[in-house]
Amino acid sequence: MSISGLFTTNRQNARLSVKLFLGAWLLSAVPAMALTGSQMPSQTPSQTVSPMLIAQARLSEGSRGPAVTELQRKLDERGLFPGAIDGVYGPTTTQAVRQFQRIRRLDVTGVADPQTLNLLGIDTQRLAVGLTHPNYGTINSEDISAVSSPDDIITLQRVLRSYGFNIGVDGVYGSETMQAVRTYQRTADLPVDGVADRATLVHMGFRSGGRSSSSSGSFGNDGNRSQGRYVAAIIAGRSELGQIRRSFPNATVENNSLGDYISLGRFQDRSDAEILVDDASDLGYDARVLHD
What we know:
Layout: H1 3-34, H2 51-54, H3 66-77, H4 91-103, H5 114-119, H6 124-129, E1 131-133, E2 137-139, H7 150-162, H8 175-187, H9 198-204, E3 230-234, H10 241-245, E4 252-256, E5 259-267, H11 270-282, E6 287-291
Antiparallel strand pairs: 1-2, 3-5, 3-6, 4-5
C-alpha cells in the first residue's frame, strides 16, 4: 500500500471515530437538554395535570359555595389561609392562592385554575360536574347552602316551589328557604339540618351527568315529562327557544291549531303545570297552562 493510501484510510477512520463520539455525546445529553430552564419539572408524575382538567373548573374572586370552602380548607391545611373559612372567594383567598402559586412555580394570578386546584388535591372533575334537575337546570356543586351562589339558590327555590312551598325566588338562602328545606327533609325521612346536601337534592330529582329523573311524574329519555294533559307553555316562537332554555333547559317547541309555542313540560295535574307557569311569568314571559 502506498503512503498516500495509508493516510487516506487513517483520515477516514478518524472521521468515523469523531462521528461516533459526537453521536454518543448527543444521545447522552438529550435528557439534560430537554429539562433545562423553565422546562425543568416542578412536580412529580402523579401531579401532572391532564388537558381535560385544564378546561374544567376555575374559581376566582367573587365565587361562592362549597367549592370555595374546600379551596380555603386546603390552603388552611398548608398554613396559607389566615381568614375565616366562609365559602366566599374574597381578597384573602386571592392572596392565599397567589402565595401558593408563587411557591409552586405556577403563574401567579390569584385565580384557582385547574392546575392550582389539582396541586391542592381538589377533585376538579367533581367540582365541574355539579347536578342537574330535569326542569330547572344545572347547579355548580353537589349541595346548596347559605354560602352558595345566588343562581344555585334560585334553582333550589324554584324546585321547592314545585313541591308546594310558597317561598320567594330571590337567590338568598334565608330563614324561609332553610325552613322549607328542613320541612322537605323531615317529610322525606332525611337528616334534618336545613342544608340541601347531595342526598336531599337527589331526592328532589337532581342527578349527576346532565341527565335526570324525578320522584314524581313521568319522564321521557330527554328529561321532560313525556305524558300529561296539561302543558306549561310560554307563548313564543322558535327563535326565542335559546333564550328560554337558559332558565328552562329542557324547553321544547310544540304546536297546536293556533301555531308554535314553547313547552316547559307536560303534567297529569294542572297544579303542577301552574307552578312552572308562575316561575316563567315571574321572569316576564307570557306563560299559561294549555290543555290538550
